[in-house]
Amino acid sequence: MRVLLAEQAHARYADLLRAARPDLQLIAAADSCELLDVAGQCPVWLGQPDLLMPLLRAGFKPAWLQSTWAGITPLLGAGLPQDYPLTRAVGIFGQVMAEYVLTYLLAHRRQLLARLACQVEQHWDGTPSASLRGTKVLIVGAGDIGQQVAQLLAPFGIELRGIAREPRAIAPFAEVRGMSDLGELAGWADCLVNLLPDTPATRDIYDAALFARMQPHALLINAGRGVAVVDADLVAALNRGQLAGAVIDVCRQEPLPPGHPFWDAPHLLLTGHSSAPTDPAAMAELFLDNLQRYQQGQALRGQVDFARGY
Questions:
Q1: What pTM value is reported for the model?
Q2: Which of 106, 144, 242, 290 is buried most deeply by CB count within 10 Å?
Q3: Domain region containing 259
Q4: Cα torsion 2, 76, 82, 286: sign
């Protein structure tokens, strides 16, 4: 089996895959141009969507493509084929994303940055901090990752509610409603965590109208996609004190350009798309499991519905 591997960390992936499956013929590179001559000879592709997209654009198409990202937006561009099995990375980001959310939720409740500023100013701050117990957290995107985030938060006594494409019962959420209820639950939440994928239905949903419904003490954490937030509306809401703070991991343009309002917006922390990096060992395990499924004609984990965009 010839496998095309397009990854910045291709050497690490190659070592992991060869150790488990010595029979695989891996053709690996971190540059799409180096793979153009062999793309048509490899039925299976594994790698980053941004590196594989040029191969699709050049007219090549795999028998199956496994993305090493959870997001597959570059592979959904106009004019690209959609008549092949595409799978995204699933089941490997839950814990690291949960750790990320817990880190910044705790930092917010314990006023970590404010206390650091006081130390720099040599000002003693004895203001009491708030516990996580009883904190109302709304997770928008109650899928695989959202459920694992909720499971990590639940033991702290946090009140959990979720938003999904359709209302349904999902443990450990007290309730999960549909997208039409986002505005109402945003007003309920002490912390709103966005984990939604990038689809036409999830763009620009965090706008001035929604921020106006949030509590002035609330925290927004966006670890989903940058296009979900209207940048200017978020900055204006922070300036007006309509919410207490924002932790932004993903932006419409990355890296964020100099001069963007996010750099000096009040109470906004940028974390540089670091919330849930892909672990090559976990990704290799997922790929090998899906490869076995592919070779045996079984359903693939994380198969993308092109009509929905995820």
A1: 0.92
A2: 290
A3: 94-270
A4: positive
